[in-house]
Write a structure and sequence with these properties.
By secondary structure, this protein is of the alpha/beta class. The protein has ten helices and five strands; from the N terminus they run H-H-H-H-E-H-E-H-E-H-E-E-H-H-H. It is about 55% helix and about 10% strand.
């Protein structure tokens, strides 16, 4: 028994072969810990009882219990009711949106222009025959789930605008309060044929439609590389020009 108090075990402990003997916990220390836990439990119970009853009620229960509250309670209840209403509205909105919905031209005014004042609307006009449009729809579907507070819709362009030219597709409009706050028209403005969902997220965030957690433009590195390449090309041309000037014969 390694815990047995024998001379041989003491020798083995001295060489580190056996672990040190476990010291019995002090009875006073154990009592303090037990009393501390009991005190914490009583404090939690006290705080639970102390909480105003309306803070544990839903909107229906608040309405039914109005007669039981005094004037001070009624003010607190009204503030709490407004808080719960806002939470309920946010929940309803998250349940209402959260996906890329298909609409037609007849629904444009209702779904886009006349959307609630506090709602950002992103609408994509597209054609299924254009691959870039399909890519944008795929990305917008992901962003709609990530940002359910914004309204994401798509519409086949012919149902909204007749004779719209293919070179203007994809077309993304960003609306707020019935006004266009941002627009991306054509492949280049939408981000190019290699568009990534993070790049589109950044564009919509810049327009104000969503609040992204991205810290910088995902396309920044590519843009910096292009700028660096253009600077190198320009410097190379300048060097070649200077070299050519040196080699030119001096004609008098």
């Amino acid at each position: 028994d390694p815990n047995e108090d024998t001379e041989w075990n003491d020798v083995l402990r001295g060489f580190g072969i056996l672990p040190p003997k476990e010291k019995p916990k002090d009875e006073i220390e154990e009592m303090v810990l037990r009393l501390q836990k009991e005190a914490e439990g009583k404090l939690h119970l006290f705080l639970f009882v102390l909480v105003k009853p309306y803070e544990r009620m839903n909107l229906k229960e608040l309405k039914e219990a109005e007669d039981d509250f005094d004037e001070a309670d009624m003010k607190a209840v009204e503030m709490y009711r407004q808080q719960r209403l806002q939470e309920w509205k946010r929940l309803q909105r998250r349940q209402k949106y959260g996906e890329l919905r298909e609409i037609c031209g007849e629904q444009y005014v209702k779904e886009v222009t006349n959307a609630p004042e506090d709602v950002w609307v992103i609408i994509h006009l597209y054609r299924t025959s254009i691959p870039m449009c399909l890519l944008v729809n795929q990305h917008l579907g992901l962003l709609a789930r990530k940002f359910p507070e914004a309204k994401f819709v798509k519409a086949i362009v012919n149902s909204c605008i007749q004779n719209y030219h293919d070179r203007c597709l994809p077309t993304i409009f960003v609306y707020k309060n019935g006004q266009i706050k941002g627009r991306f028209i054509g492949v280049a403005e939408c981000g190019g044929i290699n568009l990534k969902v993070e790049e589109l997220e950044w564009k919509l965030a810049e327009a104000g439609a969503i609040k992204t957690d991205l810290e910088e433009n995902p396309k920044k590195d590519i843009m910096d590389m292009m700028t660096f390449s253009m600077q190198n090309i320009s410097a190379h041309k300048n060097t070649n020009t200077k070299s050519s000037d040196v080699m030119k014969p001096n004609i008098t």
